[in-house]
Amino acid sequence: MSAALDSSAGADNASPLVEEILTAARNRLSKASFGPPTREAALLLARVMGLTEAQLLAHSRDVVPPAAADEFSSLLERRLTGEPVAYLLQEKEFFGRPFLVDSRVLIPRPETEHLVEFALEQNLPRSPSILDVGTGSGCIGLTLALEISAARVVATDLSPSALAVASTNARRLGVTDRVRLVATDLARGLDPTRFDLVVSNPPYIGHDEADELSPEVRRFEPATALFSPVDAHRVLERLLTDLQSVKMGTPLMVEIGFGQRDKVESLASGSPFELATIRPDYAGIPRVAIFHRR
Ligand code: GLN
Question: What average pLDDT does the segment 168-192 reach?
Answer without folding.
Answer: 98
